[in-house]
């Protein structure tokens, strides 16, 4: 057994090649044992085991800096850097993160939950090294999916100009979360997977030795046209590869040689997602992440599937239904067709669904272009990822008042993915932009109504946000009906306290109201529905009459729904009112069970009850 003896990369350096191969297989078995019982990212990590072993064998980490692009490929790195024993706590409350975290380990050089950032970070670290006259190596590991993000190309462009010593390792597995898209990717993989590729390249090299000197320039151009690294060399990188990224005997000597080179280097390695576990090899998209537990022999989930549909499913089904009636409706996603439910839309309307790749900025402006020409684009993007395109939302869509529809999946706290993925900022940053309408449903049936509302609203941009996971279990109407813009609903009436709730906090508010009623305190509960425009016609008279107001939201308190209520009260000159804003505090919330996190943030039914009782004691 080798894995149990690896407490740091220093232990790894003592092993010979056969022992390293055995270690890699032990890591594969250990990952399988843990992830089959606990949720986590799966297939990407099975492809990077040998790469992680080779990197920590060759480079002097943590003195040498290895920056992993996004954390879903870095579990092997965690196993080799002192986190083997704590690995079963992965993504659980109090456990280790599923992503890279500078607070967790000195080996996690740069935190990463979103993609395409590693090259820019590595360039910054290499530049700092040179400015301070230090001497260490800098390596960025980025997937081919990460290269569909424009930031990666911006960094390549700068790195080729700066000429710092740094290594970029392109981990090519033809995947991001779903299959990698884009013209660059298609050309790249078509060329490198061609059975004629190596034959032609070797033939050209033989030709160079036979033809007259005055013809060698033409022959070298032919060779260059067959080389997948030509683009990177135009950026100023020395290109090596492609190389089998799951072959330690090939990786270690090449990395050793590259470690001694200067200037920007790009090493292209080809790895296999899910390597070593047949179900994941055959279905790398399905095994991108597992919810655990699952049967090791079959790969099938053990936990029975809920009969209550997920919010994502309701959104997808409703969009398809409405798109059958309106040919202007198109779907736009940024490399997340499965996660957003647009894969089903693409099955129904293959010519009306567009995957832009891991490039949210492009996706938003692309949607703006569609809207400018009369189409009804629905940009389905996770809340946390829309943050990456804030300027495009503001500049390209809202200033021009283009009727783009934003469907923000995974809004609110998302649990095990932690601070990089909690969708808690969207209400605050969207409501501050002129022309934008922002709404959030209390349940899956209201989500269906909001999809309809967004599609019939053509006066400007509109966003609806909805949580991760299954719905409440309410009856879903056969026909979705559009809601009046900016109109809330009173879902319970009382005289002692007013609870203004938005989105998935409405049902906790109703739960709290019942608990308070049992204690003799009556509460009015309002389902606000709209963060912007706020229903001041309903809210302000209630607030003035009752005098005690609790707002609750699954977003940040600063600048969010509660702030909007305070602004409305101030603007109306209503002063003699007690107000308590409940929501996500001014902090980054760690990973863990969702309900426990809401309790930790004092953003649940109990928090409402405590506040109301304190006022009425």
Q: Approximately how much helix is present in the residues?
A: 40-55%
Gross morphology is globular
CATH architectural grouping of the largest domain: 3-Layer(aba) Sandwich
What is the CATH topology descriptor of the largest domain? Rossmann fold
| Order of strands across the main sheet | 9-8-10-11-13-12-17
Low-pLDDT stretches are: 191-208
Question: What is the residue-mean pLDDT, rounded to a whole number?
Answer: 89
Rg estimate, integer Å: 27 Å
- With helices defined by DSSP (H or I, 4 residues minimum), what is the helix count? 26
Q: In total, how many domains does the architecture comprise?
A: 3
Largest sheet: 7 strands, mixed
From the N-terminal CA to the C-terminal CA, the straight-line distance is 63 Å
Oligomeric state as shown: single chain
The share of residues in extended strands comes to: 15-25%
Structural class: alpha/beta
Give a nutshell description of this structure.
The protein is α/β, with parallel strands linked by helices and 617 residues long. 40% of the residues lie in helices and 16% in strands.
């Amino acid at each position: 057994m080798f894995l149990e003896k690896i407490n740091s990369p220093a232990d790894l350096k003592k092993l010979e090649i056969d022992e390293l191969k055995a270690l890699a297989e032990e890591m594969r078995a250990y990952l399988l044992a843990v992830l089959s019982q606990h949720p986590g990212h799966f297939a990407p990590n099975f492809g990077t085991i040998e790469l992680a072993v080779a990197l920590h064998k060759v480079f002097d980490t943590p003195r040498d800096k290895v920056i992993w692009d996004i954390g879903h490929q870095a579990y092997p790195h965690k196993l080799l850097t002192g986190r083997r024993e704590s690995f079963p706590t992965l993504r659980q409350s109090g456990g280790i993160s599923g992503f890279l975290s500078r607070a967790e380990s000195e080996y996690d050089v740069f935190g990463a939950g979103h993609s395409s950032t590693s090259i820019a970070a590595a360039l910054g670290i290499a530049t700092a090294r040179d400015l301070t006259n230090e001497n260490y190596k800098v390596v960025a590991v980025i997937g081919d999916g990460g290269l569909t993000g424009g930031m990666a190309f911006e960094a390549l462009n700068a790195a080729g100009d700066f000429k710092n010593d740094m290594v970029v390792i392109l981990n090519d597995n033809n995947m991001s979360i779903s299959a990698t898209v884009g013209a660059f990717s298609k050309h790249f993989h078509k060329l490198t997977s061609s059975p004629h590729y190596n034959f032609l390249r070797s033939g050209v090299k033989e030709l160079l030795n036979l033809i007259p000197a005055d013809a060698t320039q033409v022959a070298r151009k032919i060779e260059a046209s067959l080389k997948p690294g030509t683009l990177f060399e135009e950026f100023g990188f020395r290109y090596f590869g492609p190389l089998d990224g799951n072959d330690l005997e090939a990786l270690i000597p090449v990395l050793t040689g590259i470690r001694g080179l200067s200037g920007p280097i790009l090493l292209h390695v080809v790895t296999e997602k899910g390597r070593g576990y047949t179900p994941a090899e055959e279905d790398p998209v399905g095994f991108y992440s597992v919810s655990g537990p699952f049967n090791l022999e079959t790969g099938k989930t053990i936990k029975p599937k809920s009969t209550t549909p997920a919010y994502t499913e309701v959104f997808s089904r409703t969009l398809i239904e409405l798109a059958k009636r309106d040919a202007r409706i198109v779907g736009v996603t940024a490399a997340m067709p499965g996660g957003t439910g647009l894969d089903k839309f693409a099955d129904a309307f293959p010519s009306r669904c567009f995957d832009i790749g891991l490039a949210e900025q492009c996706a938003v402006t692309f949607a703006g272009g569609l809207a400018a020409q009369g189409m009804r684009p629905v940009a389905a993007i996770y809340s946390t990822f829309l943050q990456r395109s804030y300027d495009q939302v503001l500049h390209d869509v809202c200033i021009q008042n283009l009727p783009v529809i934003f469907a923000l999946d995974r809004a609110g706290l998302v649990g095990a993915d932690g601070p990089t993925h909690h969708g808690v900022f969207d209400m605050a940053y969207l409501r501050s932009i002129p022309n934008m309408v922002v709404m959030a449903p209390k349940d899956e049936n209201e989500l269906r109504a909001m999809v309809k509302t967004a599609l019939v609203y053509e006066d400007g941009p509109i966003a609806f946000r909805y949580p991760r996971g299954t719905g409440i279990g309410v009856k879903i109407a056969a026909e979705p009906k559009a809601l009046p813009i900016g109109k809330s609903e009173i879902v319970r009436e009382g005289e002692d306290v007013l609870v203004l709730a938005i989105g998935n906090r409405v049902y906790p508010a109703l739960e709290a109201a019942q608990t308070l009623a049992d204690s003799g305190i009556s509460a009015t509960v309002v389902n606000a529905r709209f963060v912007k425009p706020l229903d001041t016609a309903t809210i302000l008279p209630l607030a003035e009459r009752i005098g005690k107001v609790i707002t609750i939201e699954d977003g940040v308190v600063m600048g969010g729904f509660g702030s909007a209520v305070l602004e409305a009260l101030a603007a109306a000159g209503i002063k003699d009112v007690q107000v308590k804003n409940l929501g996500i505090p001014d902090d980054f919330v760690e990973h863990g069970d969702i309900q426990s996190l809401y309790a930790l943030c004092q953003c649940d039914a109990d928090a409402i009850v405590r506040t109301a009782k304190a006022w009425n004691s």
